[in-house]
Amino acid sequence: MGSVLRGDVGLELGQRVARALRAALDVDITAEQALIRPSNRDGADYQCNVAMSLAKKVGRNPREVATLIVEHLDAQDAVEAAEIAGPGFINLKLRREWLETQTANLLRDDRLGVPETEEPRRIAIDYSSPNVAKEMHVGHLRSTIIGDAFCRLLSFAGHEVIPHNHLGDWGTPFGMLIEHLTDEGHGADHEISDLNAFYQQARQKFDNEPGFADRARRRVVLLQGGDEATLALWHELVGESQRHFNQVYELLGIGLSAQDNYGESFYNPYLADTITELQQKGLIETSDGALCVFPPGFTNREGDRLPLIVRKSDGGYGYATTDFATVRYWVRERKVDDLIYVVGTPQAQHFQMIFATSKQAGWLDDAHTAVHTGFGTILGSDGKTIRTRAGGTIKLIDLLTEAVENSYQVMPESSDVEGAEKEELARTLGLGAVKYADLSNDREKDYVFTWEKMLAKTGDTSVYIQYANARILSIGRKVGREAPQDAPLVLREQAERDLALKLLQLPTAIQAAIDELAPHKLTTYLFETATAFSTFYNDCPVATAETRELQDSRLHLLTLTSRVLTLGLSLLGIGAPERL
Ligand code: ARG
């Protein structure tokens, strides 16, 4: 997903350094390669570290390179001082006036300095993807939250995003489920309203009741053969599950609906053709009566090649077959450029193997990429996979309901919010906290789920950021007026300057979150911005500012901070209440 976002102060400085290098040493680098990083060392605002990385290449020592950059830097308007430190760091202190202009420009910019991509891509994102006739569990929570954040971030950047829900809605378990449904007398849907229990009963019968397993197998054949009565029962199961999924999506404020369903069943008509194509390309081998592919580069410890089975010896198709059909469908029929799969890390090897063979088949190439963005497990406070007190798997709907209930604890007692508004607020706080706790952790890592931590009013939580934003808006209400658009912005106090510098770094934070598909890059930034606001709030009175000019300027800073926090949270699927 080539990075093409541009537009903050660091990049502007990067461009100037790149120009200096061209003039001084005739080397070409991009603005990003200038390695400009925020820094508050020795009174600087930014540090440039390119001299160290370039020294070898140009055959000079780093301090020499740094000196040449400083000598050729055409940045009098922007940079007040450029000082070389240590082995060749360049500390850059910005001119106040320049910073004021840059910050004021944000006031007139709907996108707060974040440009749209110049190379929009069409991107299909596979996320959530729960299994029919099974209740969604916390494992699906991460996929749903992370996938939703990807959709929002990439759309905001100007890409065309196509979300799709790869429901587990096909295959052998459905024989068993449908037989059980016929036995129980469908229509009375109270049994399937507890999908987990329904599934377990069916499983129980499959293992113990004489004749049931055979009936179940015959059902699978009927289902795959398109038998009408069987399909009607299957639809009933899928429909009931969909109602459960929708409940969760609605509560979470996730845009997925039945329209986005591309379950395993959807690809059924494509499976035979997919296999034929793999065969024609010479990629299929027969092994013990099964048709297999052997993706290049995958072996076990003994050095034997690892297969993916695309057709079992009994003629049945499996999970991998569907995933080949999926890649082929989205690239060929839907003409997407990129595929993103938000699925737990245990499936990493499966996807690497699918992608390797898809490249051989020509479905993926330099212009059509696929990435698997895995994620770790949610742990309980005992460091093991989170469970209920009784030791069972936690149902997602229970967990989310608890989140909303718990959020009443963090509402201020003095709050004059009541009734439906209060309930809405509880949802925004509680579900925001669950999402933020998830997204603020490095995606690949496991994390421990603790209510106290995720609902804390201080620290790296959504609640802290939401409070900061609500405070800003309440200051505005207290002052009772807005600053005129053209009122000048002045950054005399250190806290004003630090806050402005943070506001100007939004594009970099969003870019990093997109480039690395790492939402925590954005949460970290939002937390730092809320912290910079807190310092500002302590040091710089607004309602009682000494002059009207100063008040105008500070109102501008508050407006921008609120806009940055609100936008940032919204890109993570988290609301920002106006009052708390
Ligand atoms: N239904 C699967 C599960 O719950 C996830 C499907 C992921 N997507 C895919 N294309 N395989 O584990």
From TrEMBL:
UniProt xrefs under SUPFAM superfamilies: Anticodon-binding domain of a subclass of class I aminoacyl-tRNA synthetases, Arginyl-tRNA synthetase (ArgRS), N-terminal 'additional' domain, Nucleotidylyl transferase
PROSITE patterns: AA_TRNA_LIGASE_I
Motif ('HIGH' region): 130-140
Domain Arginyl tRNA synthetase N-terminal: 11-94
EC numbers, comma separated: 6.1.1.19
Catalysis performed (reactions): tRNA(Arg) + L-arginine + ATP = L-arginyl-tRNA(Arg) + AMP + diphosphate
GO molecular function: ligase activity
InterPro entries according to UniProt: aa-tRNA-synth_I_CS, Arg-tRNA-ligase, Arg-tRNA-synth_N, Arg-tRNA-synth_N_sf, ArgRS_core, DALR_anticod-bd, Rossmann-like_a/b/a_fold, tRNAsynth_Ia_anticodon-bd
Record carries keyword ATP-binding: yes
Residues covered by the DALR anticodon binding domain: 465-580
Alphabetized CDD domains for the sequence: Anticodon_Ia_Arg, ArgRS_core
Keywords: Aminoacyl-tRNA synthetase, ATP-binding, Cytoplasm, Ligase, Nucleotide-binding, Protein biosynthesis
Subcellular localization(s) per the UniProt record: Cytoplasm
HAMAP family assigned: Arg_tRNA_synth
Quaternary data: Monomer.
Family statement: Belongs to the class-I aminoacyl-tRNA synthetase family.
Record-linked PANTHER family: ARGININE--TRNA LIGASE, CYTOPLASMIC, ARGINYL-TRNA SYNTHETASE
Name assigned to this protein: Arginine--tRNA ligase
Organismal lineage: Bacteria, Bacillati, Actinomycetota, Actinomycetes, Pseudonocardiales
Gene designation per UniProt: argS
